Amino acid sequence: MPPYAPGANPAGEAVPDVPVVTDTGRVSPSASIPAVDGITTDHVLTPGQVAYHATRDTSYIDPTSWSVTVYKHRHELDVYYKGHFFKRYHSVSGRSFEPGAKSWEGDRRTPEGIYTIVEKHPSRRFQWFLKLSYPNDDDRARYEQMCSDHLVPISDGHPVGLGDRIGIHGTDKPILNSGNINWTTGCISVDKADIVELYKLLPVGTLVVIKP
pTM score, two decimals? Predict the structure, then answer.
């Protein structure tokens, strides 16, 4: 279960009523809410944040309540709660100069496709690591075809592997993240404070769609 539940702040105290917004995101200009349920906001609560705050059952720990869409070229990671936009996080990805999905271990590309969070654990370097279900069936099929076409690099007489251990994590290079510099070897990196939020919010099993 996440360290805090909707309707209460991290200390377990009641959260004051928050303004309700429409799907257009409109709210009174006088509203100034720095956080809801421990999640930093932009002073205007999104429909997803309102829905999360209003949750009074355990659906917030159901992975089907959440989804993530990553746009690599836009440096964006969007989180949705129960089909409503929740929050946008800044992100960077693999440092390969060649576009496209990850094809083999060491190509420094970030995967593209449909994945799930399969594991969450602390990371000495990155604070938290949310491991994704890479490689999926599509990744394996593409890799096998590329091996057949002799497009995969050879190491010690054999094609290099497909790779794994791809996930969403924090950063030990904040200046690169803030400068939109893709520096990872294939993972998705977000800011330090953001990985803490994502760890708390997203259950194992959450859908993650990665787009170019």
Answer: 0.83
